[in-house]
Amino acid sequence: MRPWIAFIAALLTGISVAGCSGSWQTPLSGSLGSGAGEASGATPNATAAYAATTSDPKVQTVANFNPLGPPRTQAPGGREVIKNPTLADVRATGRLPEFSIGRADAPVTIIKYASLTCPYCRQFHKQEFPKLKRELVDTGKVRFIIREFPIGKSSGNATIALRCAKPDKYLTLYGKFLDQQSKWVSQEVRLDRIFAVAQQVGMKQSEFDACLKNQGMINDLQWVKDRGRKLGIIGTPNFFIQNKLYKKQLTMAEIRKAVDQVLQTPALASSN
Fold first, then answer.
1. End-to-end CA distance of the chain
2. Between the chain's N and C termini, which has fewer beta carbons within 10 Å?
3. Enclosing H/E stretch for 143
4. Cβ-contact 151, 33 below 8 angstroms
């Protein structure tokens, strides 16, 4: 199937689905982030995160990308899910710095878990995010955080590239990956197409190649995804507004309502 046909098919499937699935049961590879079956069984490789498995050097599949391995039966710490996470639980971070915009002391925190191959994440970023930024972030009411939750091998590779971007280019590259999904998302991982997007924010080939072998960062991304699972994330986009989890794509009307509830409830606002 041609990449653009696969992409359109992903957009048209799961009309009744609230987002892209983060649960897998079979080790299928290369499908888009619109449903189950994206992750593949990972075979550890101590020297590199990637290994070619086809005769075409431009077409590669991931031999070892930890964030994309089959879901673990238990999240880190031996617990599957924190049933009622506190705001401190939700805000806990690993070694990777988080990408955020807005005042650090904003009264409301919104966290979006996103996969770069997810068409619903693209839709939210295009339709709702500009309004959210203008109305709530720029006015000092909300601090908005993006957390990576890659679903599928292509998303995983792109996520590594995203983390290699300079901090001031993160949001720009994030938007480019979403906006240009039809150009780089395909049933097999195309590193050349992923790099073509990353190159648009000034990334060099040598930087991209080195980043793909950065096992320390890959392990840190694994922590982010495992922590998300422990907090109850099941797919993308999923959102936390303060410590309340929304397992669906949110409209701006729903976000306004939730933020207003926090701002109007002293106990919720004071927990910031």
1. 49
2. N
3. strand 142-148
4. yes
